[in-house]
Design a protein that fits this description.
Elements: H1 5-19, H2 35-56, H3 82-98, H4 105-140
Helix pairs in contact: 1-3, 1-4, 2-3, 3-4
Length: about 140
């Protein structure tokens, strides 16, 4: 079963929100929880930069789609998965904002599913399509950061 990454992000945020109402587990005092807004902004910025880079190369954004180009510039110089890194930062930022220790379950669940199911599938596809070029890119660029 495939769950699109944006849906996984929304589920992670929803999970963080729901468990944040459990009393007595406040982790971050106000106003320090507002630092989560900074993580959210950075995550959104990274997402926008990543999408714009893929669009300039006229390749797919769909994890199940067939990429037309191996993109290794822009945010892809630093991370093989900057869109997912941006999503993770958004999820982490919402957990900080909710300030409840259980709210961090959302980002952990997001990371687990993306790292275990989505990224390996994409890596197989990219290896099949781009072979040695992708393997070289994979060796010099980390999966996350």
């Amino acid at each position: 079963m495939f769950i699109p990454p944006p849906i996984l992000l929304l589920l992670a945020i929803g999970l963080s929100y729901l468990v944040s109402f459990i009393p007595g587990l406040q982790l971050i005092a106000s106003p320090f929880n507002l630092l989560g807004l900074g993580l959210i902004v950075i995550g959104i910025g990274l997402f926008i930069w990543s999408v714009a880079t893929l669009q300039r190369h006229k390749t797919t954004l769909d994890p199940r789609g067939k990429p037309l180009a191996l993109v290794t510039i822009g945010p892809y110089r630093f991370s093989r998965n900057p869109i997912y890194l941006g999503f993770f930062l958004i999820s982490l930022g919402t957990a900080v904002l909710f300030a409840n220790i259980l709210a961090f379950v959302g980002p952990l669940v997001f990371f687990f599913f993306i790292n275990t199911f989505v990224i390996p599938f994409e890596e197989e596809t990219l290896t099949a399509l781009f072979g040695d070029s992708y393997q070289l890119y994979r060796k010099r660029t980390r999966r996350w950061v």
